[in-house]
User: Fold Carbohydrate sulfotransferase from Rhynochetos jubatus.
Amino acid sequence: YPWRHSPGTQLSEFNLTEVEAMMGSYTKVLFIRDPFQRLISAFLQSMGSSPSFSSFVQDVLDSGQHADVAWKPLVSLCRPCLIQYDYVLMFGFLRQELGHLLRRAGLPMDSLLLKFTDTQVRWTYSWLSEQMFSELSLQQKQRLAHFYRRDLAAFPFPSSFLSD
Assistant:
């Protein structure tokens, strides 16, 4: 349905028949990331809007259903129960997984792929997660785990601080 598709077109603007036809013809790739690491990234990108990570988390928790896309639960954004994704790639393993996806899709291996340093990214976010998690109150930790409960159930984040 290319005549109705433009960069600003939302999937909800199509009828069910059109959506099914499109979903059946595309290779669907979902990029996932530990929800706590997404929060850290959003906080670092919005430095200055909140005086501390703890107050930022409180703002996120208070936003509830009106959460910003940067920290909204993935399940509510990507609908993994409704859409059968062909590939699910996890942040922190992108170099390996993206290389596999590019080979499977018959696309050229770009030199940018060589610049991914997953080990460094995982170590940095592990350290940041530990530091920032320690700033949160027990109630904030529990509320975050509840806020992201569907993401934690749907995707394998075994080392997430919110899984504990």
